[in-house]
TrEMBL record:
This is Four-helix bundle copper-binding protein. Transmembrane segments: none annotated. It comes from Novosphingobium panipatense. CDD domains: DUF326. The lineage of its organism: Bacteria, Pseudomonadati, Pseudomonadota, Alphaproteobacteria, Sphingomonadales. Coiled coil: none annotated. It holds the Pfam family Csp. It comes from the Bacteria. InterPro entries: Csp_YhjQ, YHJQ-like.
């Protein structure tokens, strides 16, 4: 099942399907789950991971909200969507930086997903007009 297909079926989309935005939405949703999972794994680590947990949970919330806004096609709120894409990209960059400070495999995977999500959000920005 693909969110790309779901978005393309929306009556208001027609020939105006935005591939870059759909990809950003998909990756924001995935990133929210990865960050939540990483935060949970950090709780179980023996060392103090409080900052990483906070970064991951903040990023997860921003990504989840961005994903929800990015899949909506009825009417428009271009300014809000652009702000969310920018915020999501920055939140992901910050989370990737924090996770990058740790040698845990879950942090490495989370940082990788965050960098991918940030890149996709930045690619989608010029397509939202």
């Amino acid at each position: 099942m693909s969110i790309h297909k779901m978005i393309s079926l929306h009556p208001d989309v027609g020939d105006d399907f935005n591939e870059a935005l759909a990809t950003a939405a998909r990756h924001a949703m995935l990133c929210a789950e990865m960050c939540t999972s990483c935060a949970d794994a950090c709780v179980a680590e023996k060392m103090d991971m409080a900052q990483c947990i906070r970064s991951c949970l903040d990023c997860a919330d921003v990504c989840a909200a961005t994903g929800r806004l990015a899949i909506r096609r009825t009417a428009q709120n271009v300014e809000m969507l652009r702000l969310m894409l920018e915020t999501c990209a920055r939140a992901c960059e910050l989370c990737a930086e924090e996770c990058g400070r740790h040698e845990h495999e879950h942090c490495r995977l989370c940082a990788e997903m965050c960098r991918e999500c940030a890149s996709d959000c930045r690619k989608a920005l010029p397509t939202v007009q």
